[in-house]
Amino acid sequence: MHINPYPDHGTWLRANFHAHSSEHSLCGTVPLAEGIRRYFESTTDVLAITDHNHVTPLEVFKNRYPGKILLEGYEHSTGPNYVIAGGRVPPPQFHDTTATILDGATNCLRFICHPDPHPGREYWPMETLLSLKSVVDGIEIHNGHYGIARMLETGHRPEYRHIWDQVLTAGCHWWGYCNDDFHEPADFSNAFNMVCVDAITPEAVVRAAKQGACYGSTGILADTIQLHGNIIQVTTRETVQGRFIGAGGRILRESQGRQFDYSIPENEPYIRFEADNGPQALWLQPFFKTA
C-alpha cells in the first residue's frame, strides 16, 4: 500500500521558502522592503526570508501585509547549506553539529538547499546527506537562482532530481521543495511551491510543507492529485509531457496530455510524478510505500 501525501480538501497557497535581502546577505542585491513588496503585490501568498546565518526581523512587514504569510528563517552557510524556516525560528548556531542544529528546529521547515550546484564538484556528500535522514524534512530539487542565464554561463545547474532519487532510493522519506532563492531581480518568482493548507496561518503552512502536502513548479499547475486504491491519477491545467518515476530514478511510464494514471506496483518503495512543457516543469511529492 502507498500513501497519498495530498489531502482531499484545503486551500492552495503559492509559497517561496528561500529568499534573501541586500541588508543581511552579501550576495543579495534587492533591499528587504522592495523584495517583500514584489512578492506580496504579485501572486505569492507565503514568503520566507532566509538570509545567510541571520534571522531578519520581519514584524513591520507582517503588519504591512496582513493578508500574506511571512516566515522567519535563515540559510546556514558555514558549510554545505541548508534552510530553516517557520513562524518563529531558533537563532543560528555555529558551535553544534548540523544534525544537532536541525534536531533543535523540529517545529520548523528544514531542508537541504541546492545540493549539487556545481557539476563535477561534490557539495553535499551523499554519506552526509544520509546521516541527516531523521532530522531533515526534505531537499531542494530546483533552485531558480542557479537557473538564470548568468549562473548557467558560469557552470551552475538548477535541478537536483538525481540527488533526490538517490536519497529516496536509500530510504530517506524526504519531500522535494522548489524555490527561486531570490538574490537579484532575474530570480524573482521563477520557481515556487504550491502548498495545500487547512488554515491560513504560518503554523499551517509549515505543517503542510513538512507533511509533503505541496509540490514544486516553475509554472505548471496541477488540477487534481488523487490515489484510488493503488492507482495514482493526476491532471494538469495544460498539456504536458508527464512521467511516473520509481526507485533509482527509473521512468516507469511517460506520455503527453493533461490526465495521467498509473497503477503502482506493490514492490515499488516510492512513486513520484513530474511533468514539463519544455521551459516549465512540475514535480509532485513521492507516494511512499507503507512499512
Annotation, overall tally of beta strands: 16
Order of helices and strands: EEHEHEEHEHEHHEEHEEEEEEE
Unreliable runs, pLDDT <50, ≥5 residues? none
Q: Considering DSSP H and I runs of 4 or more, what fraction of the residues is helical?
A: 10-25%
Straight-line N-to-C gap: 9 Å
- The radius of gyration over CA amounts to 18 Å
Q: What sort of overall outline do the alpha carbons produce when their principal axes are compared? A: globular
- How is the main sheet built? 16 strands, mixed
Could you say which structural class the secondary elements and strand pairing correspond to? alpha+beta
Beta strand %: 25-35%
Q: How many separate helices?
A: 7
**Taking all residues together, what is the mean pLDDT?**
97
Give the topology.
Elements: E1 2-3, E2 11-16, H1 32-40, E3 46-48, H2 59-64, E4 69-76, E5 82-86, H3 98-103, E6 109-112, H4 126-131, E7 138-143, H5 149-153, H6 161-169, E8 175-179, E9 192-197, H7 202-210, E10 214-217, E11 222-228, E12 231-246, E13 250-263, E14 270-276, E15 281-283, E16 287-289
Parallel strand pairs: 2-3, 3-4, 6-7, 7-8
Antiparallel strand pairs: 1-16, 2-9, 4-5, 5-6, 9-10, 10-15, 11-12, 12-13, 12-14, 14-15, 14-16
Description:
This protein is globular. By secondary structure, the chain is an alpha+beta fold. The longest helix has 9 residues, at 32-40. The chain has 7 helices and 16 strands. The protein has a 16-stranded mixed beta sheet that branches. The relative contact order is 0.16. Strand 14 and strand 15 form a beta hairpin. The mean pLDDT is 97.
